[in-house]
Design goal:
The chain is an alpha/beta fold. The chain folds into 5 domains: 196 residues, Rossmann fold (3-Layer(aba) Sandwich), CATH 3.40.50.300; 193 residues, Rossmann fold (3-Layer(aba) Sandwich); 103 residues, Winged helix-like DNA-binding domain superfamily/Winged helix DNA-binding domain (Arc Repressor Mutant, subunit A); 84 residues, HRDC domain (DNA polymerase, domain 1); 103 residues, Orthogonal Bundle (Arc Repressor Mutant, subunit A), CATH 1.10.10. The protein is 48% helix and 11% strand. The strands form 5 sheets. It has a 7-stranded parallel beta sheet with strand order 3-4-2-5-6-1-7, sandwiched between helices. A 6-stranded parallel beta sheet has the order 8-13-12-9-11-10, sandwiched between helices. Helix 23 packs across helix 27. The longest helix has 22 residues. The chain is globular and about 85 Å long. It starts with 5 loop residues before the first helix and ends with a helix.
Length: 727
């Protein structure tokens, strides 16, 4: 080992005068040949804990890293501190044979101090044989939470690392992660056989980050408004699906925002280019799946937005941790609705029981965090086994800055739980909510539940309120949801105890807007007003009703209510402007738009309204090539499964595309496909339902048919109906 004072080495190699936090103790532990476990939040300086010892020790340190993009980023950073470009290398599938041989030669000649490898590369026989012949200083495992099944990025190949290390060399190990609950920490240490390791655990508190949860409504408009208010600042937006990443990135671009997509479906060159543009500040916003950001060393990310709620609090903490790494401002905003938790729960079906249980537990904790009224920082830190006094939050979360309104809910909760018991735990949440609110739905009528004593017992509140009671009862552990039975609610032991001995229960009223420095953006407002123009809205509803009667079609076929509400904010007075309205394509605008724009134009003149066209959010232009190709494939009567397979999409995604085309006003004939999957009588029954229905909501249709038809079957028939009647 080179004899050099540690602080001198830090200054010589990295230009810093002092260490951060526990870095110096950690580095000394590694230099002394001890196993080391580092749990340090993003931005705390984990990389330094193995980079400096590697430069000081004889031999090559092998660093296991999960992502090729991350390796390149780290290698570039280390090469910048040395005149010798061979000081750091990576060995992975992106290298040619000649490049890989050059790496091996530099290691053999003792020029390389840090070798970054993917776990998959480390398991290859030729790499194991090579590494056994060279001097290894220590093994480092970056993002060590990938080892644990309870971790948020579990990678099965990580669980083989100890076995591989033992084949190569008996040298110390340093494992590092930015997130580890006590359970994950123990799992990592046991798997690596390093229970003897010295554990260095820094505080998980990121005092400069502001945490906020927003109800998921009018989300694209809220995001666009927010980014415009933070013009020129760097940010990351996380989505769960690749499709949503592409759509949102394009929507931001057409609205003048410098944004690029990043996900595993893009080729390696494109991903690297987009990442580099973000790092080099050629682009402000990256819209990404969780494939982006692990270890990305960009200190000035000013906001992290979650378009979809993550699958665990660890994922959430890791991803929000990419904001404000320089200690400056960092806003962490997540859009939440309980339906997204239910959707993620459905994805767990069919997986091994142990995996399902882990997944449900993680989702339950994420839902609790999203719906809590206590300090969000306190809840995050408690999850990671760290105490925190919320008085020290300094209003750096929405619940401390703007406490949620609460009301005593003991009686409401008792009524819900007693009803579930009375109906022998056989129904889903919406059914109980309808009964409590005194609403006679088709399902309530079919079961004769409008005749039971509990019917209408909570009719002073609407179904939306009772849904919130159900969600908060689930979060509090008073009831559980049977996922296998399509969400039937069951009482827990705690719920039964509550029925026998009701205690005080605080219900939380959720906020409906994202507060910014100027006016709030209210759900449904598109960021322009806090109250809808009710006078115009009522006139448009009357006009829609008249046209509906004249044409003998349901009102929603003409324009749906979200479209009418949007008209009351944008005041479109030409057919072209009407196509900027949510849910209105060129076909529908041409077919039904005339009377509406005439009414709006007269109204604007009558009231002397100044139209807020400067903040109109443009719609993404249809990808005409793909749209034409899809319609051509349908004209050729290809099965939807084959169309999807050719484009790398599921049938659900193909149906999404068809619905979008039909909604924009283009007629699409998929009768050939429907005839194959549905009998004629069934088609007639569902078609008749949509002809008489007040809404095209699928949940109501599903309940009307008491679950006899699947969501996909109902969607197909809705496409047929809308295509024939509306277009």
């Amino acid at each position: 080992m080179k004899v050099l004072n540690l602080k001198d080495a830090l200054k010589t190699y990295f230009g810093f005068d002092s260490f951060k936090g526990q870095q110096e103790e950690i580095i000394l532990n590694v230099l002394n040949g001890e196993n080391t476990f580092v749990i340090m939040p993003t931005g705390g300086g984990k990389s330094m804990c193995y980079q400096l010892p590697a430069l000081l020790l004889d031999g090559t340190a092998v660093v296991v890293s999960p992502l090729i993009a991350l390796m390149k980023n780290q290698v570039d950073a280390i090469r910048s501190v040395s005149e010798d470009g061979s000081i750091a290398h990576f060995l992975n599938s992106s290298l040619s044979k000649a490049e890989a041989n050059k790496v091996r030669q530099d290691i053999t000649e003792g020029r390389t101090k840090l070798l970054y490898v993917a776990p998959e590369s480390l398991t290859k026989k030729e790499n194991i044989e090579f590494l056994t012949q060279v001097d290894i200083s220590f093994f480092a495992i970056d993002e060590a939470h990938c080892i644990s099944e309870w971790g948020h990025d579990f990678r099965p190949e990580y669980r083989r690392l100890r076995e591989i290390f033992e084949k190569i060399s008996n040298v110390p190990i340093i494992a590092l992660t930015a997130t580890a609950t006590p359970k994950v920490q123990n799992d990592i240490q046991k798997n690596l056989n390093m229970l003897d390791a010295m554990v260095f655990k820094s505080s998980f508190n990121r005092g400069n980050l502001y945490y906020q949860i927003i109800p998921k409504k009018e989300i694209e408009k809220q995001i666009i408004k927010y980014i415009r208010q933070h013009d020129g600042k760097s940010g990351i937006i996380y989505c769960l699906s690749r499709k949503k990443v592409e759509e949102l990135a394009e929507l931001l671009q057409v609205n003048g925002i410098s944004a690029l997509p990043y996900h595993a479906g893009l080729d390696a060159v494109t991903r690297a280019t987009h990442q580099d543009k973000f790092l080099m500040e050629e682009v402000d916003v990256i819209v990404a799946t969780i494939a982006f950001g692990m270890g990305i060393d960009k200190p000035d990310v000013r906001f992290v937005i979650h378009h979809d709620i993550p699958k665990s609090l660890e994922s959430y903490y890791q991803e929000t941790g990419r904001a404000g790494r320089d200690g400056g401002e960092g806003e962490c905003i997540a859009f939440y609705r309980y339906k997204d938790i239910e959707k993620l729960e459905k994805f767990l079906q069919g997986k091994p029981v142990a995996e399902q249980e882990i997944g449900w537990q993680l989702l339950s904790e994420m839902a609790s965090y999203s719906e809590t009224s206590v300090c969000r920082r306190k809840m995050i830190l408690h999850y990671f086994g760290e105490g925190f006094d919320e008085k020290n939050c300094g209003e750096m979360c929405d619940n401390c800055k703007d406490p949620k309104e609460r009301l005593e809910g003991k009686e409401y909760m008792s009524n819900l739980l007693r009803l579930i018991r009375a109906l022998k735990e056989t129904q889903k949440g919406n059914h109980y909510c309808a009964i409590l609110a005194g609403k006679v739905t088709a399902e309530v009528k079919a079961y004769k539940h409008d005749a039971i004593p509990e019917f209408g017992i909570g009719k002073e509140k609407d179904e939306h309120f009772w849904n919130a009671v159900v969600r908060q009862a689930i979060v509090a552990g008073l009831i559980t949801k049977d996922i296998e039975s399509y969400g039937v609610l069951k009482l827990s032991d705690e719920g039964r105890a509550f029925i026998e001995n009701p205690t005080s229960f605080e219900l939380i009223k959720e906020r409906d807007y994202l507060v910014q420095d100027d006016e709030p953006i209210v759900a449904g407002s598109g960021g322009r007003n806090t109250v809808i123009d009710q006078d115009l809205y009522d006139r448009l509803l009357d006009l829609r009703r008249r046209l509906s009667s004249e044409k003998s079609i349901p009102p929603f076929v003409i324009f749906q209510e979200p479209s009418l509400r949007d008209m009351c904010f944008q005041y479109p007075i030409t057919i072209e402007e009407l196509t900027n309205i949510q849910g209105v394509g060129t076909g529908k605008a041409a077919r039904y738009g005339g009377p509406f724009i005439k009414m709006i134009k007269d109204y604007v003149e009558e009231k002397g309204i100044e139209r807020p066209q400067d903040v109109v959010v443009k719609s993404v232009v249809n990808k005409s090539g793909l749209k034409v190709q899809l319609i051509q494939n349908i004209d050729r009567k290809l099965p939807l499964e084959d169309i999807g397979r050719a484009q790398g999409k599921t049938v659900d995604e193909v149906i999404d595309e068809i619905e979008s085309i039909v909604q924009s006003g283009t007629r699409v004939n998929i009768n050939y496909y429907i005839d194959d999957v549905l009998d004629e009588e069934v088609q007639e029954e569902i078609y008749a339902y949509f002809s008489e229905a007040e809404t095209d909501d699928l949940t109501e249709a599903y309940e009307e048919f008491d679950g006899d038809y699947s969501e996909e079957e109902l969607r197909l028939m809705r496409i047929k109906f809308m295509s024939e009647m509306a277009n």
